[in-house]
Amino acid sequence: MYQFLRQSKAKRSLVVLLVSASALIFLFTNCGRFGGFIIPDVEGTNSLGSAGVNPPLPPVDQKLCTTTSVPGRVGLQRLTSRQMENTLRDLLGISNIVLPSTFARDDQMGGYVSLPETQLMSSQFVEMQMDFLFGLADQVVTQAPAVVISCAYANSATCVDKIISDFLVRAYRRPLRADEKSRFITQYNNFSGTAQEKMKVVIASILFSPQFLYRELTNPPAGSGNYLALNSYELANRLSYFAWETMPDAQLFAKAQSGDLSKPEVLTAELQRMIQSPRIEALARSLAEQWFGYGSIWQHSLNSTTFPNFNTPMKQSMYGESVQFIKYLIQQNRPLSDLVIADYSFVDSNLATLYGLSVPANTPMTLTNIVNTKHQGVLGQPGILALTSSGEKTSIVRRGLWVNEKLLCTTFGAPPAGVDTKLPTNLPADATPREQMDAHRTIASCAACHNYIDPPGLVLESFDPLGRSRTIYSTGRTIDTSAKLVSGVSFLDAKDLNAYLSKDKNFNECVTKKVMPVIVGRVSKFEDACSVKTIAAGKIPTDLTFGQLFENMVKSMVFTMQAGE
């Protein structure tokens, strides 16, 4: 800890006590306002976590949706680790800020990290966070970045007022309310020490205030049941944190200050500006990690003897492919269907070996035509295929679950208590995975779910655990990739499956549901059915583009309004 804190523990303890008390009062007084920590009914399915399959709800008739759309309600959102890093860099003007690994991990629910329900804090977390923020305050007063320390404050009350006022507005990301500035001016004046020590404590206190650490929405009066439109600053924050994972930039702040951001045409224009910025890669990372599951690729393992090249450089390439692919879909305004039928991807020399492509050594990540390979869309990405494999083998179940849950929004509960999941013992020694799963589905208690889960997984058996195309198993047995859904639809191979998914009536709506937690900070529920249908509407199923999807989202009640309790 920096010298001032070591020499002034009593002073530091007093500040810590005051700041902690402020945080606790804020959180507890807002608990009722924001609904507490209630596990939601994810994506409008029923009995999540109980045995059985929860297919997507039947499509809602658009004619019934003229007056029944509702905005929903989002609780108090703490900045995620990445949002915290990015915001601190932009706020403080210090480029090398990295959160300590000891508290940089975000809890998640269903893969998503920005949901209020997941953001509980332990006392240890609070203490580590406080120490880190005090250290940053020390850097600020030492390095004096102009974005924060804009004038010589040592002997100027006017300058102190300006620094604190400007910093508070940017830290809180909104205009100040009554007494918010005066509290910190008083703290500065009453704290004994040098001017630098005083400013250090004030900056640390602001950084640890709930108004900085959390994103808050104004709510209608409790019990009113009314809806309230987000003000222009709330819109700016919601837009910036979903697109760039950081605080609004100067232009967005200016649009909020003028009130223009509340105009739909200005809001969508700012969205398009942000999409075309390189910083939109933050959204691509969020979707790759939280929707597709790439956040866990660093911990994922395959047998190192069988797959020695599944190492850190390969994982970096797999992760990079997904991020660049999603970024391309967004910036080039590609159809949602390209998620599954794109005959292009981003390939480097590591991935080329898995795609069966010849490229020069050390080729960087490059947009590549893969039409002459067996790969297509996300289901052909080696990273997805590796994440849904285990040890030395592929997993029909993991891959089938991934397709059902990530692309069709079909969820499955845990197996019934006491169910026998052992395979029949009369299988031949060289039984193929298909034969094993066929036998598994003869068990009635297993068939209810596996009739849905297995078909997509069987189709993807044409790829090994590293995502390389194959036609035979190591035993010499031929791989049969044909499969049939419960609905009766049949496939011969992965490209058949992709073509079906791209035209499925639930596909656009499922994509909408999957991006919604990243964009607004809550999962979709049954009452969102009409809003989801409107957001996902295209002239034909394959017509909706990513740009249109995001524009529809930010113009919707889901994005622009907050429901009362």
Task: Please tell me about this protein's structure.
By secondary structure, this protein is mostly helical. Among the domains are: 169 residues, no CATH class; 216 residues, no CATH class. It has 24 helices and twelve strands. The strands form six sheets. A two-stranded antiparallel ribbon has the order 1-9. Strands 2-3 form a two-stranded antiparallel sheet. The protein has a two-stranded antiparallel sheet with strand order 4-12. β10 and β11 form a beta hairpin. α4 crosses α7 and α5 packs across α6. The longest helix has 23 residues. The chain is elongated and about 85 Å long. The N terminus is likely disordered.
Q: What's the main sheet like?
A: 2 strands, antiparallel
pLDDT under 50 segments (min length 5)?
Answer: 1-10, 15-50
Shape descriptor: elongated
Structural class computed from helices and strand pairing? mainly alpha
Percent helix, as a range, is 40-55%
- Give the overall pLDDT as a whole number: 87
Strand content: 5-15%
Distance between the termini: 44 Å
How many strands? 12
Side by side, the strands of the main sheet go 1-9
- What quaternary form is this? single chain
The Cα radius of gyration reads: 26 Å
Number of helices: 24
